[in-house]
Amino acid sequence: MSIERELSRRSFLRRMLGGAVGLLSLEFVGGSLAFLWPNLSNGLGSRIRIGAVADLVAGEPSFANGYPLNVGVAQSFLVNVPAATALASGTPSPKPAPTAGDLIALWRRCPHLACMVPELCDERKRFQCRCHGSTYNILGEKLEKGPASRGMDRFAVTIDADGEVVIDTREVLTGAPAGPTTFRDAFPPEVGCVG
C-alpha cells in the first residue's frame, strides 16, 4: 500500500527558496576563493620574463643609453645602472649589453601613498611622484624633496639560462631609507624635476 503525499504550494516555495539560497551561497564562496587565490602565472606576484637584453635594446634603443625601460606588466622601471648613472651625471656612456648585476627593477608604486611614479623627467633625469612630489634619483634613491620616507621599492632581476631578463615580483625589496645616497647626480638633492 503506497501513500502518496501531495506537495503543498508552501512546501514547494520553501524548498525552492532554500535551494536558491544554497546556490547563491555556493557562488559567493567560490567567487571569494577565486578572488583571493594568488595569480602565480603572470603579472605581479610572479616571475615575469620580459625578453633577452638584445631584444630589449632593439625595441627601445634609449635603454642602452641609460633611460629606464617601462615594464608595464611588472609595474616597474628596468634600469641599466652603468648607463643610467652616466646619463644622469651628464656624461652619457651607452652600455648595450648589461649583465644581471647591472640591472635593477624599480617598482613604480611610490612608497609614500602608493601613487604610480611617472617616467623619468628629461630635464634632471629624476623620478618625481605627481601626487605629493617625492623625488628620487635615477636609481630610485630618495632625495630631499617630498614626504616619502624611503627610496623606491625594487624587485630582484636575473637573466635565466635562455638569456631572458626575469623580474621576480614575488617579493618586494624595500627601498633604502631617506638619507645619504650611493649616487649623486649633477643637481642639488632638494630640487625636483622642475625647480
Structure description:
The protein is of the alpha+beta class. The protein folds into 2 domains: 1-37; 47-173, Rieske Iron-sulfur Protein (3-layer Sandwich), CATH 2.102.10. The protein is built from 3 helices and 8 strands. The chain has a 6-stranded antiparallel sheet. Strands 5-6 form a two-stranded antiparallel ribbon. The termini are far apart.
Topology of this structure?
Layout: H1 9-36, E1 47-52, H2 53-59, E2 69-71, E3 76-80, H3 81-89, E4 103-107, E5 127-128, E6 135-136, E7 154-159, E8 164-173
Antiparallel strand pairs: 1-8, 2-3, 3-4, 4-7, 5-6, 7-8
CATH superfamily of the largest domain: Rieske [2Fe-2S] iron-sulphur domain
Secondary-structure element order, N to C: HEHEEHEEEEE
Cross-sheet strand order for the largest sheet: 1-8-7-4-3-2
Total number of domains? 2
Question: Radius of gyration from the CA trace?
Answer: 26 Å
Helix content range: 10-25%
CATH class of the largest domain: Mainly Beta
Output the number of helix runs: 3
Low-confidence stretches: none
Strand content: 15-25%
Q: How far apart are the termini? A: 97 Å
Structural class: alpha+beta
List how many beta strands DSSP finds.
8
Known CATH architecture of the largest domain = 3-layer Sandwich
